[in-house]
Structures are given as structure tokens and as C-alpha cells.
Amino acid sequence: MTPSIDTSLFLPGLTAVSNYIGETEFDKTLFNFLNTSLHIDHFAVFTYFNEEGAGHLFTRSIMPAAEAEELAKDYVDEYHQRDPHFKQTQTQFAEHNNETVHPSLPDEYDPEYRDHFFTQHDLVDKVSVTRKVDEGYIYCNFYRIGESGQFSEHEKLLFDKILPLITNLIVCHFKILRFHGEKNTSEESSARSLVHSIISSHTEPFDKLTTRESEVCERILVGFTSTGIALDLDIAESNVNTYRRRSYEKLGIASQNELFSLCIFALNKLK
Asked: Which domains does the chain have, with CATH numbers?
């Protein structure tokens, strides 16, 4: 007899997560819930749109942040093409359908893939959920690390019930971020063009910045949040904060207002 599962026990945690939909703290709050309530140690969300290809929405993990982000980058750059479950998303999912998959790690992944994404990082089990969004997909992956051990059969039954709901929250978060990005595109186009011309002209002091630092500063100047910059550049939000800090140090400033002042000063030079 299949044991009953009281998913209502998780409603307070999910309610707390829903409060952060569209906010910068969403993925952090969600991972805290996943880790403390469902004992998920590593969590990575990817996107796939026909015109854009594979993308990385966010990653949260108990492993070091740099290691987790590098793993996500490797996946987007190359390895997603070798993930049998990711390839299924392009052919098998009807609109608004969620499907929870419990892959067999020894059998469903080629040896190199398994070594790079599981063995080297001590990932011992995985559950994934895919959801169709417009002309693309959101692909959510939930992992166990090392001593946490593999998911039990009871946990898999629980995941079948609760992870599709979590995926729906992620989709709502993604849609809100995307909507704000699209809404602001036309209003920002002229401002972005002007800011880009200033920073890319290598006028002092912006000539000190790397390409990525310049890209981050441009987006700060036109009002992007850290989350918006991360999505726009397809990098982790933690990397955005690092590039901002490095840029401010090179420019000798400590705030966004000072960055605006430098931009105006550089504009006057160009005139």
C-alpha cells in the first residue's frame, strides 16, 4: 500500500517563497526551503528558447558558489546537448505540462557526462521537472550531494506531488522578470544607446574597465536590478555583484549616484 503524503506540511514554506516571486531574494528563499524541508543540496534552473538556445536562470547549492556556477556554465556551453532529459523537452511536453523525471544515473548518462556532472562534484541523485513556457522550456534540476544519500522511494512520491508546484512558482518568477525586461526595452533603447556610446568610447575613467565590467555598468546606469543584469547577460547574480564591486574600485566610486556623475562628466568630454 502506497503511504499517504501530507503535502500541506509544506504550505507555510511555499507561501514564504511565493512572497518573493519577481524579487531578487526569490532563488535564495526557494533554495532555503528546498534544502531545509526536502533535503535538496543542489538546485539548477535552465531555459531553452528556439531563438536563444540554452540559458541559465539561476543555481543555488551547498557546494561553493564558484564551483556551482562553473558547473552551470559547462552545462549551458556544451553538455545540455548530451542530457537525454533536456533533449526530450523539445519534443515531448504539451503546453503547461509538468513532468517529474527520476533518472537512473548509471544507465541514462554517458560515462564522461556522468563523471563531469556527478562523480567529480559528489552529486549522487537527481530529479528534474520541465515546464513549457511560450516558445521554450524551463528545466529545473534538484540534486543530492554525498552523505545526504539518494532519494528514497517515499521522497520520490513526495517530489512527484510538490516539485511541479515549485516549478510553477519558478515559471511565474521568470515571467515577471521577463515582462519587466520587455516592458522597459522600448523606453530604455535610446538611453542604453547613449550610455553604451559613452562607456564603449573608452573615455576616462571608463577605459579602465573590462568588457564585462562595462556591460554591467551600462545596465546599472539604465536602471537594471542585479537580477535583471544577470538575466540580460546570462550570468549569475553573484557575478554581477563581483563585477560591480570591481568596477567601482577601478572608477574610485562607491555608489550608483557617483557612477551617474562619471557618465555625465564623460558625456561632456565627448561633446
From this structure: 8-178 (3.30.450.80), 200-266 (1.10.10.10)
